[in-house]
Every structure is written in C-alpha cells, then in structure tokens.
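Notes to self after the call with IL:
- keep both proteins in one doc
- input above output, always
- annotate only the second one for now

Protein 1:
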Amino acid sequence: MTAQTFNPQSRQPIQPKTDLLNLETLKFTALMYLVEAGRNEDYEQMPEIIRFAREFGASSTEINTILGLE
C-alpha cells in the first residue's frame, strides 16, 4: 500500500446544494407569511402568498394545515 500525497489542485471544490437550500428557505418564509396573514386577518394577501409558497415547493398539505383545513 502506497501513501498518497495531498495535492490541493486535484481536489474538487465542494459545491453546496444552494438551490435546494434557498428553495427550502423561501418556502418556509412564504409559509410563515401565510401564518402571519391569517393571524392579522389579511385575507386579501393570502392568495398571492399561497401562490409564492407553491412556487417554492410547499405542498397542499402544508398550506391546508396552516389554513386549518386539515
């Protein structure tokens, strides 16, 4: 067995999955805005917030749970 020397130029940089992380963060933020809109009875804003939450990957179950439908 031979020892391998560390060569920093041959090392591949680690690419975090920022796209997935950003989508999860945006989804969570949209769902929190939905919670706040419900608390403040700001019903006019809710359809747009729901649209954003869905775009960012929120499921119908997550949205319905926040709205108290499940």
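Protein 2 (the one to annotate):
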Amino acid sequence: MTVHRLVQFFFNGADQWEPWDITDLTSAPEIAGDPVLSPAGDVFVRGADNHLLRFGYDGSAWHQEDVTSAAGGWAIVGGIAVAPDGSVFGRREDGMLAHFYFRAPSGWEQWDVSRLAGGGTLSGDPISSPVEQRVFVRRADAHLVMFEFGAESGWVHHDLTRVLQMPRVTGNPAVSGDGRSVYCRSEDNRLLHLYQTPITDSQRQHFYFTLAMEWECRDLGETAGCVRLAGNPAVSDNGREVYVRRDDGHLMHLHHARDKGWELVDVSRLAGGTMVAGDPIISPRGGVHVRRIDNHLVHFYFRPPNGWEQWDISHQAGNWSMVGNPAVSGDGRSVFARRTQLSRRRFVAQDPGLPAQRRDPLLEHAEWRHLLGHTE
C-alpha cells in the first residue's frame, strides 16, 4: 500500500542536505496534501482522512495537532493556503471556502466564508495574499474569484473573470509577495497576469469606482512566447519573475525587464535538459525547488558566471522520492515535502544482502536509524 509521509530536507550550512521524517518523529497520521508553511514556521497539511493538520517545532522536537478536530470537525479537500496572520483557508468537501483561525484562549475556530460572502461552489485550491486579507480561488464555473475581508463590510467576494472580462481559468493562481500581481493559467493553457493598479482610498470610496479600475488582466501567452503551460505558476515577491512548467515538462523562467519587457529562458535546457513534473516553488535563496520527472526534489538556481545549475537534493539526502509539490521555509534552509513509501515495512534496517543500487544510503548510518526509530 502506498502511503505519504511529511518529510523535511534541512540544509546544515556545510553544503549538505539532511533528511528528517516528521511523520515518524511525531507518530502522526499519513498525509494526502502538499505542505504549506505559516509565517511562524508551522507546517500545515491535509491528512489522509481530510483533516487539517498542524506540525510545529518547539526548538527541540516536532509536535502535531489535528486542527479539524480542535475546530469542530470540517473536513477539507485539495490544497490549503495560510494567511499572513497564520490562519488557514481550505475547500470543504461541499465546495465551500472554510477559514480556520486560532483565537486565544479558546483555541481553533472555523468559519464558513462562502456562506458569509457568497461566491458559489469552488473547485480550485485557495491562495492567500501575503499582505492583505484576500483569497484567490477558482470557482466551479472556471471563474477566478477573490474573497476580501473589510473591517466594515466583513467577507465579500468579487468575480474577477466577469468584471475584467478575462478568459476562464484552470489550476490554481499564484500571488506575488507584494500582493499586486496574480498569475494563473487559462483553460487553453496560456499564462494570464492580473495586475493591481495604484488606487487611493478616496478613489475607492467614490460612487463611480469599480473593480475594473483597480485590476487589469494581460494575456502573456504571445508576449512571453510561452504558448502552452502545465501546472501552476510561481511568482517572485515583486511580481516580475515567474516560473512555469511548459507542457513538454521544461522549467521556464519569465523575467520582466523595464526596458525590454518580458524575456523567456528555458531553464531545463540550460541546466542539463532535465524535465520537471511538479509545480515550481520560489526559494528565498534564489531559484526554485521543484519535483523532477524522476520524483527527486531538485533546486534550480542561477550562479554567475556559470549560469543555470541544478542540485539534486533527494540524491544527497538518502534518495528520498517525493510526490506533489514542496514548501520552502522563510530562510530557505528547510524544504518540506510528501514522501512516498510502499509501506511502513521499509522503515527497518536493510537486508545486508540487498544489491547496492537498491539500498537507501540514509539507512547505512546507525545514528539515522536510531533517530528515525529503525530497529535491527
């Protein structure tokens, strides 16, 4: 039976990545979704039972908490998003947007945002703005919707597809670190760029104000020369760099230069011709982390004067394969991912008679067997 486990790849500063199996260290249940980090460093992920789980590190050990049970029992499907305040958004099994947040001293609570704001049934995964109380998500009719919280209005929703007369979308959007750029993939797999123009509070409060005055949508499919995409984009903090997976599995880098416009670089070709299978995730240390077609976790980065290079983290850290997409810590020294295991039986000492190519290098070290709970 295939099971998924939460693992951490930690960069120790000596050009070495160390692997940690957090599922084993916390005796946590198996997971089903991709991990997402909060600003405080907690890891949130969907469990195999569709419960929202939180993993926290107290400086000496990892601990796990079932947020769904603590908040009242709403199960979620698909991916999750963490807001700047540490609260979590997820799509319920009925397609409604749920909001989980921690209120001291009572603990975790949950709110049905869709009931409060309307917006219809959702089919995509929510993505939170890093700077404002906004959530972007794909609705069941392939419209891109923005949920927004105001001190006076509470939760409201805006149908960006209808207001901006933009193409219908697929997949999940990506929001820049400044919150002003949103990138998404159209149904015909072209890259769309939504850009927020500067608007003053007085303009926004005027009777003639519409959302179309604040947001613009541009089709980058022809401009960037990247016609057919696969998967979800990743965007830099300033919104001027975008990484995408092309439909042929090549990792592409789009950069907007003020004097030249959009420029497109085939990173896969320049870094050895390797194709990728997952969605790229921006690294604070530069470049992106992504799952390669062999299910290895790889770091693509630009090193002057050599150009684009790739670092096979999985190969260095025990040949651990992964599924889905990773999450990167704020300092870039930790990458969290889902690891695939055929069964728990692999987490024992290896048979000395195994051929070298079938042996897990991690389990060759007694100290790691002890830390991860392996027995002779």
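Annotation: The chain has one domain: 3-342. The longest strand covers residues 3-11.
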